[in-house]
Specification:
This protein is of the alpha/beta class. Helices cover about 45% and strands about 15% of the residues.
Length: about 170
């Protein structure tokens, strides 16, 4: 079976992604970034990406590396490279990168997106959702970026996976 060049062509090393974003911002384009595990891609993720893309000219997604995912045993289910390629296959996403760090703080400082998108649950109770978010938001403000939230359909692939595992 032949590799999907369409999706893999949209996956970049972080340094190349940083250069691409810098060029886009220099042209006056608003570049948005979504970051997360995205281990089991679902409708909530897609709707988050669509809502984010409606608020920017270009949408970049970065995924958490396997070694930093702590969502329980047998996770991640899919390797970071597979998650990145799957997300790159979505028409709403312009580019994808794989983070190298435990949080998105260093990635945000490197990429410097115009907007950093998270789901509304991060705005309402960030310390319960992910304590790294407060540090990520601070990093975004350091370089003059903006934190923005999307509303909509919220699902948890971790909760769904727990239900599947317990029924087996």
């Amino acid at each position: 079976m032949e590799e999907n060049n369409y999706a893999s062509a949209k996956v970049y090393a972080l340094e190349a992604l940083a250069a691409r974003i810098a060029e886009q911002r220099a042209r006056g384009e608003l570049v948005g970034l979504c970051h997360g595990c995205f281990d089991i891609l679902h409708l909530g993720h897609l709707r988050h990406f669509i809502a984010a893309r409606e608020q920017c000219d270009r949408l970049v997604v970065t995924v958490t590396p396997d070694r930093f995912i702590n969502k329980g045993p047998d996770r991640p289910i899919f390797a970071a490279e597979h998650r990145a390629e799957l997300i790159a296959g979505l028409a709403v996403v312009d580019a994808v990168g794989i983070n190298r760090w435990a949080s998105a703080v260093e990635t945000l400082r490197l990429l410097k997106p115009s907007r950093y998108f998270k789901g509304r649950e991060y705005d309402l109770r960030p310390e319960q959702v992910n304590p790294n978010f407060l540090l990520e938001a601070e990093a975004v403000r350091e370089f003059g970026g903006e934190v923005a939230f999307t509303d909509g359909f919220v699902l948890s692939s971790s909760a769904a996976w727990s239900r599947v595992k317990s029924s087996v």
